[in-house]
Write a structure and sequence with these properties.
Layout (H helix, E strand, L loop, with lengths): L1 E5 L8 H16 L5 E6 L16 E3 L4 E5 L2 E8 L2 H11 L3 E4 L4 H12 L4 E5 L3 H9 L2 H15 L4 E4 L2 H9 L7 E3 L18 H6 L9 E6 L8 H17 L5 E6 L5 H7 L5 E5 L3 H10 L2 E4 L8 H8 L4 E4 L20 E4 L4 H13 L1 H15 L4 H18 L21 H6 L8
Parallel strand pairs: 1-2, 1-6, 2-3, 6-7, 7-8, 8-9, 10-11, 10-13, 11-12, 13-14, 14-15
Antiparallel strand pairs: 4-5
């Protein structure tokens, strides 16, 4: 089986992009001709440091037009070349189409699958209605976004969700529950591991401007934006830092890895407090930052999974997350048979609870070590290999259940080229989605 995955995000610095790149890499590592995954995108963004963009199963078509997203200079909205994209898709002759994003490239993939009667699957990676609600606080705009998402995903045979909670969210959106599948979570557990902790952590942290090498490191990794609930984290740190400075315990510092539209405001709010902003970090450097830190915080209420929470726990950090969204499903917050506590799940806007919890973690090294060791053990079975196998099996089942025959073997040069669809028929086709 050959799957063609369409995505509007591939070289961006976010969990969705990293997941797609890792899945594409898994397809190559298997070296199995019966499992071919090709990724199609259209972007001007350069690949992150250390990424090989010349992989044979990654196809980046230069966009006809691209501009930075309003308020997000590191993200872009790109219009792909429709004819070249359709020609590429026909040449690759997929058995099934997977759409990872509801943007222009995703719309093109959706249209190709429907036009050629191919099984259409997708992943609900991002809760865009929740983002719109947080960013604009406009009920009408949020309702419009919900309607677009419902119409976009309506013809999909299967829709992956990254957490069980978002299966309920899709049902509330008006999509059938029997078409949603929770994708088994998985990360590269080799890349995020305690063994990446530098031998001399003090020397390691001394290489970063503004970082206190001797402080307990409370780490956040992700986009720096209001929809990640970072204004709440800023309030927590403003309340916590003076208590740590007055006490006789260890010093603590908040480390923020990433970038985004809220960064300047957050830096201003934390001015004069022990906090450092490290910008984007990738590859082995990011692995070392995780492993050299002490506590991981992720206050987001809109993430469908929270891949960084899994990465941090795999690296041996206790995690503190909110009780809303996918991250709560990958943190063990209470002892249970066979499940040791790996962190804390706290009310999303209870500043006092966050202050108390972080104060306890910062001042209790033994507790950090205990929770971090349990977190590492809990994540090890959640490998990207297992997630990829589940991803593939769902596509195989969708293909087997389809009412049309699978892709025939590739044409030879002597075979005639298929005729184009009648132009009148193409004009009469209803547009699958409203303008984005």
């Amino acid at each position: 089986m050959r799957i063609l995955l369409f995505t509007d995000t591939l070289f961006d610095v976010n969990g969705v992009s990293r997941f797609i790149r890792t899945v594409a890499e898994q397809s190559l590592l298997r070296a199995d001709p019966s499992r071919q995954l090709h990724v199609v995108t259209s972007t001007r963004l350069p690949p992150p440091d250390g990424l090989d963009a010349d992989r044979p199963n990654i196809h980046n078509l230069p966009p006809l037009f691209a501009r930075a997203m309003p308020g997000y200079p590191h993200l872009e909205l790109a219009l792909p070349p429709p004819r070249r994209l359709a020609a590429l898709a026909r040449r690759l002759r997929p058995d099934a189409v997977h759409v990872s994003t509801p943007g222009p490239v995703g719309l093109a993939g959706r249209r190709f699958a429907l036009r050629h009667n191919l099984p259409l699957l997708g992943t609900y990676h991002t809760d865009f209605p929740a983002y719109i609600d947080h960013l604009f606080d406009d009920a009408a705009l949020t309702l419009l976004c919900r309607g677009f998402m419902r119409r976009f995903y309506r013809p999909f045979a299967r829709i992956f969700t990254r957490s069980a909670g978002y299966a309920d969210a899709l049902q509330r959106l008006g999509l059938p529950r029997d078409r949603t599948v929770r994708l088994l979570p998985g990360i590269d557990t080799d890349a995020f591991h305690p063994r990446h902790r530098p031998a001399d952590t003090r020397a390691f942290w001394s290489g970063y401007r503004g970082v206190d090498p001797d402080a307990v490191k409370v780490l956040y990794v992700g986009r720096i934006s209001v929809e990640k609930n970072l204004p709440m984290l800023a309030r927590v740190w403003r309340a916590l830092a003076p208590r740590l400075q007055r006490g006789r315990g260890p010093r603590a510092q908040l480390l923020v890895v990433g970038d985004g539209p809220y960064r300047a405001s957050m830096q201003a709010e934390l001015a004069g407090l022990p906090a450092a902003f490290l910008g984007f970090r990738h590859g082995s450097e990011l692995s070392a930052i995780y492993a050299a830190s002490d506590v991981f915080v992720f206050p987001s209420t809109t993430d469908t999974l929270g891949q960084v929470v899994m990465e941090a726990q795999s690296a041996g950090l206790p995690a503190v997350v909110t009780d809303r969204g996918g991250p709560a499903e990958v943190v063990n917050a209470a002892d249970a048979p066979g499940r040791d506590r790996t962190g804390y799940i706290l009310p999303a806007h209870d500043t006092d609870a966050w202050v108390r919890t972080l104060l306890t973690l910062v001042t209790t090294p033994a507790l950090r070590a205990q929770l971090g060791a349990a977190a590492h053990r809990a994540i090890q079975p959640l490998s990207i290999r297992r997630s990829f196998d589940h991803f593939w099996s769902v596509h195989e089942h969708a293909l087997a259940s389809a009412t049309h025959p699978p892709r025939s073997k590739p044409r030879t040069q002597r075979e005639p080229r298929p005729q184009r669809e009648p132009r009148a028929q193409a004009r009469g086709e209803a547009s699958p989605c409203p303008p984005a």
